[in-house]
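Cross-check.
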Amino acid sequence: MQTLEFTKAHAVLWDDQNKLLWVTGGTVVRSYRVTGSMRDSRLVKHGPDIKIAGNGHDLQPDYSRPGTLLVADSRHVYSLHKATRALTTVASLPHPKSYVRHANGQAMWTTDPDAEDSVWGGPTVHFSAGGDRTRPGAQIYKARLYTTQFH
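Predicted model, tokenized:
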């Protein structure tokens, strides 16, 4: 068994191109290599931690920009270049819960518009091209693309 220290770990994503497990939570994005197999599998920290402004909340591939990930924290969405670990702010949103971008460039996200009433989310899935979808009374936490294009 292995115990790792990671304050507020919240989202994980397997990067099959680089064979890394990316994790975000607290104000950190971190990557791990997986070594060994079966009962001897271990996570070994790979590269320096990447600091973000707020609490890390979501981690998704950017299907429109291979080699990058999308990271959401308490108030921002960042593009993370996997090779250089450089962050670029993509959007500032009220409490983003999820953010993903399709290969055609259209983004989809969910937010918690009033963090005081619910920690789960709001009733709307937003689209950068317009046509937001709202279900009154819903608390939509995460929205994801259904695709086999991950890389």
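DSSP finds no helices and twelve strands in the chain. The chain has a mean pLDDT of 92. Passed to J.P. for a second look.
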